[in-house]
């Protein structure tokens, strides 16, 4: 039996309707403009980081290798929810098909969990770089970097597959209104016409514990880093703290709301969708600002790329004029 046939057997619901962030028409128009700007800033900012790292020979350290993947995941992560949410501000009925809902759920957990693992890998990279600098090049090799990124993608896929399979097997008989702006496990559990207590516990154990355990690993790693910095020179301490501060800010902005949402059983709290804005839209948008404004190497690389582009454009313009 294929997936479509299974869903038809379990459901008489063919689509869901989002209640969205607000029902006020004027607020929806304002939200359309605001979140469209947020999304464009997110895509352009993260794309700029990816392009800068790819085309700048000076940004070949493992830290920037991981940062390029983090920026790419941020683009994908926001693109799963933001375009649909922005478009829904312009329509009265915010519909999504059952297949579209399940696909969105898979994408949210796939890219969200992958981001969690990449942030954890980045913390490990900083721990080795600061606490074991003499062994850094032998531990964090290009091959190891590739393996850690691949493991992050695989971990995100396995997590998302579990969440999706648990949800897709639930019967939905109606109602079909979701008090959210995207499809997630908790809101869908509330609509299932069966007892979802066990599934809810599995969701908390799966999503919540991944977020919480990775967050604790990150906290411990940075405590160890801070302790080890006491013996460094003031200049070395300043540089290390500057690099780690950017990562810590992203971790707090992403893990705080994410852990709050998934560490507890499903609830009827409508504020969950407001909290979700932080880890699906706002944090991915802020990541480029946080990493570039506090990192001189990235800013210098961007300047060099811009100068190279302008010089190339001027050279092409002159050649065209002479011809």
UniProtKB/TrEMBL annotation:
Entry coiled-coil feature ranges: none
Pfam families: 7tm_4
Keywords, ordered alphabetically: Cell membrane, G-protein coupled receptor, Membrane, Olfaction, Receptor, Sensory transduction, Transducer, Transmembrane, Transmembrane helix
Membrane topology category: Multi-pass membrane protein
Residues that span the membrane, as ranges: 30-55, 61-80, 101-124, 197-229, 241-263, 275-293
Subcellular localization(s) per the UniProt record: Cell membrane; Membrane
InterPro entries: GPCR_Rhodpsn, GPCR_Rhodpsn_7TM, Olfact_rcpt, Olfactory_Receptors
Molecular function terms, GO-annotated: G protein-coupled receptor activity; olfactory receptor activity
UniProt family annotation: Belongs to the G-protein coupled receptor 1 family.
PANTHER family hit by this protein: OLFACTORY RECEPTOR
Protein name as catalogued: Olfactory receptor
């Amino acid at each position: 039996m294929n997936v479509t046939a299974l869903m038809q057997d379990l459901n008489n619901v063919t689509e869901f309707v989002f209640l969205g962030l607000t029902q006020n028409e004027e607020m929806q128009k304002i939200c359309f403009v605001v979140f469209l700007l947020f999304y464009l800033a997110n895509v352009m900012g993260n794309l700029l980081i990816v392009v800068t790292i790819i085309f700048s020979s000076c940004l070949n350290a493992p830290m920037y290798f991981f940062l390029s993947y983090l920026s790419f995941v941020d683009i994908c992560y926001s693109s799963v929810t933001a375009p649909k949410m922005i478009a829904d501000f312009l329509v009265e009925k915010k519909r999504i098909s059952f297949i579209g809902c399940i696909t969105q759920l898979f994408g949210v957990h796939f890219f969200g969990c992958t981001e969690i693992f990449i942030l954890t890998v980045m913390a490990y990279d900083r721990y080795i770089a600061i606490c074991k600098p003499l062994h850094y090049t032998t531990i964090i090799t290009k091959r190891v970097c590739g393996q850690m990124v691949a493991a992050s993608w695989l971990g995100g896929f396995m997590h998302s597959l579990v969440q999706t399979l648990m949800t897709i097997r639930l019967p939905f008989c109606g109602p079909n209104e979701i008090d959210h702006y995207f499809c997630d496990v908790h809101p869908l559990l509330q609509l299932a016409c069966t007892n979802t207590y066990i599934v809810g516990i599995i969701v908390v154990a799966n999503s919540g514990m991944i977020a919480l355990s990775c967050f604790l690993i990150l906290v411990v790693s940075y405590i160890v880093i801070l302790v080890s910095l006491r013996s460094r020179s003031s200049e070395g301490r300043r540089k290390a703290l500057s690099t780690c501060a950017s990562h810590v800010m992203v971790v707090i902005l992403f893990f705080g709301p994410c852990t709050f949402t998934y560490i507890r059983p499903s609830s009827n709290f409508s504020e969950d969708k407001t909290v979700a804005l932080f880890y699906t839209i706002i944090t991915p948008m802020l990541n480029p600002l946080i990493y570039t404004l506090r990192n001189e190497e990235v800013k210098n690389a961007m300047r060099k790329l811009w100068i190279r582009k302008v010089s190339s454009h001027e050279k092409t313009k002159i050649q065209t004029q002479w011809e």
